[in-house]
Amino acid sequence: MIYKDFKGLKLSNLGFGCMRFARDPETGEVDQELVNAMFKAAIEGGVNYFDTSYAYLDGKSEGAMAEGLKPYPRESYFLADKFPGHSIPGPVDNEALFNISLQRSGTDYFDFYLLHNVTEWSVKIYESDEYHIIPDMLRMKEQGKIRHFGFSFHGGCELLEDFLTRHEGMFEFVQIQCNYLDWSLQKAKEKYDIITKHGLKVWVMEPCRGGKLARLPEAAHEKLQELRPGSSDASFAFRFLQGLPEIGMVLSGMNALDQVTDNLKTFESRLPLGEEELKVLYAIAEDMKRGVPCTGCRYCCPGCPMELDIPYLLEVYNSYKVEMNASMSMRLDGLPDEKKPASCIQCGQCSHACPQGIDVPAALAELDKLYNEGPKWSVQAKSRHEQVRRDLNMKG
Prior knowledge:
The protein is α/β, with parallel strands linked by helices. It folds into 2 domains: 3-282, Alpha-Beta Barrel (TIM Barrel), CATH 3.20.20; 291-396, Orthogonal Bundle (Fumarate Reductase Iron-sulfur Protein, Chain B, domain 2).
């Protein structure tokens, strides 16, 4: 197992993400027997970091993780959990909600604790004086219930820079979506650079893009087999990350024993990708993109009568074109109505200024349609609000 030093702690570079445990399709119950078997194999292979969240699997992840870790001494592994500020129905008793996670996870402290899913929308909650989440979590740290404090992030680069600057010295690590597709698609490279510039370590989620990079189209798979016969598609995604020195943790949401076995093999020793392998992976990533070739030059912005942040909107558009999910709606939810794609008056000045010849008005019109017809965070949040209310015995 590759290990990384983090402030004197010896962390396995591969962490076990507890978001995708197999569940019974009818009851929703976690397959605990499988979890136990996967944990046993992972721990025997050197994994010592387990990541969960209050919200994962409708609140069942923490308990399933705790059950799977029962046979092992608490000091032999590291636990990471997250505060669901993006999912609460309003100001709540933050310490009580935090303590529910402690109880479910079978521990009295978290080695690593994160603000969950900071975006342009949720940042207003996390920084709100009314919600007072950050001060309460810092108090938990002072009490020793949190050993290391960070946040997971799904927003844009400008927000990341601003958030880290406003809270300089508060956080110790940042967890971002990083893989060879999102290296350019969601500007993971720029986010990596921002985080490391602030002197923090990078934690990685979605290294295989929810399985998309672990099960490539046949033509792409064959290209990788020519480079390294017998290697899994997932191994190339992980080895891409091994070439980034400031990554301290790579989380994999494993839900089958063969995934555990294959990942352990990849993390036996460090083997970053060579130049030819990188070239092939970047070409595969380009083939997977379905959006517009925006380079972020911002030539389109000065002439926009509505003063829209067009590159930001096109970045969200490109992500929508690859995969429809509620995270994208959160990034638009965080914008004032007058800055959303529907505010485009179709004047076309942006297209005239675009060196790439992008039909920006058409892309923004389609983005508005995708936003209105696609998965909505507000729908997912409603069920999570009810979960919080039940757990805290709150009235609706």
